Amino acid sequence: MNALKPRDPRRIETLIGRMTLTEKLGQLTMMAASHTVTGPVIAGHSVGDIRSGRIGNLLNLIGAAAAREMQRIAVEESRLGIPLLIGLDVIHGHRTLFPAPLGEAALFDPEAWALTARESAREAAADGIAMTFAPMLDVSRDPRWGRTVEGPGESAWVAERLAAAKVRGYQGDDLAAADSLAAVAKHFCAYGAVTAGREYASVDVSERALLEVHMPPFAAAVAAGVAAVMPAFTDLAGIPMTAHAGMLRGRLRRQLGFEGVLVSDYNAIAELIQHGVAADLVEAAALALEAGVDIDMVSGAYLQGLPAALERGLVSLERIDEAVRRVLSLKARLGLFDDPYRRGAAAESAAALGERRRLARDVGARSIVLLTNRDDALPLASDIRRVTLIGPLADAPAEMRGPWWSAAEPDAQISVLAGMRAALPRAEVLHACGVDIAGSDDSGIAAALELCDGAQAVVLCLGEAATMSGEAASRAHPGLPGRQRKLAEAVLERAGARAIPVIAVLFSGRPLVVPWLAERAAALLAAWFPGCEAGHALADILTGRTSPSGRTPISWPRAVGQIPLDFGQRRGGRPVDPPGPFSSRYIDESPEPLFPFGHGLTYGRFTLSHLRVVPDSGTESATVQVSVEVENQGRRRAQETVFLFTRRLKSRVAPPLLELRGVGRIALDPGARGTLTLPLAIAQLRSLGPDLEPALEPGAIEILVGASANRAALLTGWLEVRTTPES
Ligand code: NOJ
């Protein structure tokens, strides 16, 4: 084995000095591997390409033995013995799945976000993985876009916190540790703003939106030390991100100070030809390299195109060396030169796996959002004797996985049916599908209706298949697919006639546009995709073992025509409030969301009062304490989540309706009161002026605190921002 240990930068230079052009391009190439009965294979290539140094990085290789074998070939059989960087989409867990990211965002809990990332890293690293293509930080205000499920929701503030927590979780304290992964913040930048929510479509957002909304989460990831960044597939105002030197070298590297590796998205360099900015792989490779992309994921453009690009003078060897240096430095930071087999060396203990599933159950339950709960239909009575589960998602373990399942087995997921049967051992838990998730066969509805009779509650399990959100899964009709509405309406009618409460549970990667269901169901829950413990997590909520605490991280539209929707829109000269014929509204629909950002009920009943801002004035260096009294007037212990917003009444640039500044949580017993205090650093109130430069403007700031972004229900106070100290 090659004893090279280039932790020292000079050794990396020595190594670069020894490399042929092919070996250099190999280090800039990541190819897709998989594993067959005969051992590991690489799509379109052979393992010989690792031996020859033409392939220096892999993705999609699952299993410690396969990873070790590939690594052995690189380290022991290639001329320079440079270890492979092996990456995988470990997005919401590896073998143990946690809730899909949008669902996890509903926890509003950075510690939990970091913890699930840490556990995912441990599990993936035990399989020989050293890099995850996560976290996904694309702010989305458009539920049509399928990848909304992979991200933090509509708030850039949330995305920033999530970025920091995830990077900390994946990378740990020491990137070289056997259980740390290099995180890849993606997709830089503004992918969430694809035109009309259509996947891969062009993005054209203002400079202000870019700086206020889309870049801050990446700035947070860079500040947290993220090892790598992935440019988006999309173009930004006509310039594909993969070739966007202004964004990658300019904004990301120079402005944000990012010094890590830029890894292209899958085949994205070759797709510069499709974008229409490159004639061939040579030009495509040159554009991407010049823009600052270090690793070519699977397109082969660097391997095939860069030699000719060099000859044509389109790129320089310095540029290639610069990229190689970054890749080798990352490998060194990951400890791969010290011990390429460190990850995957030891199998995890059964105890660790059990603990991780407990975490998945806890986080799964906390990700579920109780959207409505008429007459306290939930929790179900503890002595319930008969419950009927109806719908195509009631016994669909594989669907519970959501959009990215990494190495998770379909049958290792707990269905709602299994979870409810385990939670209610003395009750009869009946089940009928009624209809499939999609398709037009409604012949099963009659049998499902029969099962309603005699039940004390009907739980309708509706929504999307796991593959109906995620990449390449935009929907123009983001409601219930197939014949599910027909099924739901028939059940609501049948159960309604017998006074049986119908609890509707939605599994989806996005808010679904279902105002009719919210109107008619006794209770409505957004379960998103809760992960491997889905059925147990949901049963915990339905039976009251856990009081719901999830809050929606994205507004739920009443109609597709309201999209894009978010709490931070600008007022305009004829605002929504007060309503009038010439206010900003629709003539055929309310302008307000069905459920605002932050909405989510609990089994407690909370009131908020006595908002205090102390002190109520200050300069940029000050932090004021915003506190509120919270009382649980309900009959059950529960956790309330409180949001702190601000609103500038006047500034040089028209201010948003609400700006999120803080989130706090407090758990209270029935009848108990507590004070929740949220710090507000005045420096946070800097905003971008007309020149797009951040500045703190003096004046009155409205402080708004409440249980969601529902403006009508917020407590208000004031803060005077001064730019000079009081004399
Ligand atoms: C394409 C996706 O856009 C990206 O998010 C993912 O990491 C890569 N494929 C690799 O699977």
Which molecules other than protein and nucleic acid are bound?
A: 1-deoxynojirimycin
- So what's the overall shape? globular
Strand content: 15-25%
Overall residue-averaged pLDDT value? 96
- What's the CATH first level of the largest domain? Alpha Beta
Structural overview:
The protein is an alpha/beta fold and 727 residues long. The protein folds into 3 domains: 87-333, TIM Barrel, CATH 3.20.20.300; 366-550, Glycoside hydrolase family 3 C-terminal domain (Rossmann fold, 3-Layer(aba) Sandwich); 606-721, Immunoglobulin-like (Sandwich), CATH 2.60.40. The protein has 20 helices and 27 strands. Strands 1, 2, 3, 4, 5, 6, 7, 10 and 11 form a 9-stranded mixed beta sheet that branches. Strands 12-17-16-15-13-14 form a 6-stranded mixed beta sheet, sandwiched between helices. It is globular, with a radius of gyration of 26 Å. The mean pLDDT is 96. The protein binds 1-deoxynojirimycin. 1-deoxynojirimycin binds at residues 89, 133, 186, 233, 265-266, 471.
